[in-house]
Amino acid sequence: MPISNASPEDVIALLDTQTYFELLKIPYPTNRDAVLERLSKQQLIKQTAQGWTITNLAAILLAKKLDAFSPALARKAPRVIIYEGNNKLQTRDEKTGNRGYAVGFDRLVDFVHSAAPQNRFIEEVLREEVKMFPAQALRELIANALVHQDFLATGTSVMIEMYRDRIEISNPGIPPIKVERFIDENRSRNEQLADTMRRFGICEEKGSGIDKVVSAAEYFQLPAPDFRVGETRTTAVLFAHQDFTDMSKADRTRACYQHCCLLYVNNKRMSNQTLRERFRLGESQAATVSLIIGAAKEAGLIKTDESESTSTRYARYLPFWA
C-alpha cells in the first residue's frame, strides 16, 4: 500500500532522492520544495490536504529501505543465491536486496557480476581478465526480470541463482508474448515501471534488451541463452563458456535460431558463413553447420530467404516469423 499523510521530511527520509537526480543526470535542487515538486511532476508522490502520498511506484524504485514501507513490498526485493557447484546442494553466498529497484540496481548488478567465475576462453583470446557472464547481459536480464514480473503474485520475487556452469534469472509471471519472439517484440506488463526505468537509463528502449543479451553471448563465445516458461515463473538462463563439441543438438539449434533473429532485426541475413563465425568454426566445418541449419529448419524455427540464391552454399535464412 502507498504511504499517505507523509511530511516533506518523511518523503526525503524514505526515498533516495539524491540517487534519483543522479540517475536522471540533473543537478540536485538547492531546496527541498524543488525536490518534492520534481517528484510530484513525475507522479511519484501526490499532495493531499493531509500531506504527501508516496506511490507504490516511488517506493519500489526509490526506497532507501523497502521494509520501511511494508512487509509485502520487502518481499518484492530481488534475491541472489550463489551455489558452489552445478546444483542447489551447497550455497556459497546469499543476499536479499532492500533498496528500491532503481537506486539499488547498479550495486545489484556489480555484486552478481563480481561473483561470476572467469571466462578462461575469452581471457586467452583478449589477453585480459573477463568474467564468465558479461555485465551487459546480466544488466539487461536483471532489468527485464524486475520490469516484467507479475506484482500480483504474492510472497515471491525476482530470483538470481548462479551455478558454476550457468546463471538463472527468474521472475514471477508468464510473459504476454512467446519466448521465440523475445528478440524482436516487447510488451511490458508494467508500463509505468518500464517507462521510468528507461528514463533512468536502466532499461533499454522497447525490444532492444534481449538482442543485446544474445549479441553478448555470441561475442563472449557462450552457448545461446535459454528462455523458459514454467507454470508461474519465467526464467532466462545464461550459460558458461562451452566448446562447440560439447554443445548438445538443442543448444546448437537454439544458437542458430537466435543468430538468425539477431541478424534479421539488424537488417542482415544469416548464412552458413555467418553461423560458422558465430561458433568460431573454419570453412572445413561448413557441412556440420549445414546440419544445424537443417535441424533449425526442420524444427520450424527458420526458413530459406526465397529472394536470395537458393543454392545451399549461398543460401540466406530468415526467422520463421519474418
In short:
It contains 13 helices and eleven strands. With 322 residues, it is α+β, with helices and mostly antiparallel strands.
Tell me the strand order in the biggest sheet.
5-4-6-7-9-8
Largest sheet: 6 strands, mixed
Number of domains: 3
Number of helices: 13
**Assembly type:** single chain
CATH level-3 fold name of the largest domain: Heat Shock Protein 90
Straight-line distance between termini: 44 Å
Helix content: 25-40%
Average residue-wise pLDDT: 92
Shape: elongated
The structure class reads: alpha+beta
Uncertain regions spanning at least 5 consecutive residues: none
Tell me the strand percentage band: 15-25%
> What's the Cα radius of gyration?
22 Å
**In CATH, what is the class of the largest domain?**
Alpha Beta
What's the count of strands? Answer: 11
**Order of H and E elements:** EHHHEEHHEEHHHEEHHEEHHHEE
Indicate the CATH architecture of the largest domain.
2-Layer Sandwich
